[in-house]
Amino acid sequence: MTPDAPAALPMGYNVQIVAVQVGADEYRLRILADKQQYYDPDGAAERAGISSATWPIFGMIWPVGIALAYEMTQFPIDGKRIIEVGCGTALSSLVLSRRGADITASDNHPLAEEFLRHNAGLNAVPPVPYRQAPWGEENPDLGRFDLIIGGDVLYEPDHAALLAGFISRHAQPAAEVLVADPGRGYRGQFSKRLAAEGFARTEMPCRAGGAEIESKGRILRFTRTAV
């Protein structure tokens, strides 16, 4: 990643633009310049259950996120309705939008939508629909998806149960789930919960994101065939 100089914005936090290589293409992303920032003047993050310690997570580029984005450069998308969960800066959603996929980005962070809109503009890709979609809440108008993707989304003790519940409500009877994971301890719990929903798991090493992620990280692929 190649960063531009940080810029102080009037909204109260510092950002920078970085260049990220994904396969043959380069993407420019607005990310947070300071990983220790916290900005919640109207209490939106607090109401969403986001602490000061976890507030900046959405605005960073994680190596395993680059690994997921790389998989999206070649994953079959024809006829699939796709959602990225915990999208953050939404690199994978941008890759899929550039390919013409039916992609919806989602997160629980109050700033994720604005960052997504800005990053889509930076890369001249079609606007990506966004949904605020907390995993533990009902979203009856969100519908169901053929492919659900996420990068490093199992980092808290309750994430396995919450995300599995979300998938149960929003995956089509025949569906796939792709999670890029750097080696978190909760992926076993997540796999068991998806197995109970009829998903079979396979995995492979990450093929992008840097040497450490490529050696330790895994792309977890869950597949369910409609009966």
Write the layout of secondary structure elements.
Layout: E1 2-3, E2 7-8, E3 14-22, E4 25-32, H1 44-47, H2 63-72, E5 81-84, H3 91-98, E6 102-107, H4 112-122, E7 130-132, E8 145-151, H5 159-170, E9 171-181, H6 187-196, E10 200-205, H7 211-216, E11 218-224
Parallel strand pairs: 5-6, 5-8, 6-7, 8-9
Antiparallel strand pairs: 1-3, 2-3, 3-4, 9-11, 10-11
Helix pairs in contact: 2-3, 5-6
InterPro entries: Methyltransf_16, SAM-dependent_MTases_sf
Protein name: Putative nicotinamide N-methyase
What does this structure look like?
This is Putative nicotinamide N-methyase. InterPro entries: Methyltransf_16 (IPR019410), SAM-dependent_MTases_sf (IPR029063). This protein is an alpha/beta fold and about 230 residues long. It has one domain (about 50-225): Rossmann fold (3-Layer(aba) Sandwich). Helix content is about 25%, strand content about 30%. The chain has seven helices and eleven strands. The protein has a seven-stranded mixed sheet, with helices on both faces. β8 (about 145-150), α5 (about 160-170) and β9 form a beta-alpha-beta unit. α2 packs parallel to α3 and α5 runs parallel beside α6 (about 185-195). The longest helix is centred in the last third of the chain and has 12 residues, at about 160-170. The chain is globular and about 50 Å long. Mean pLDDT is about 95; it is low at about 5-10.
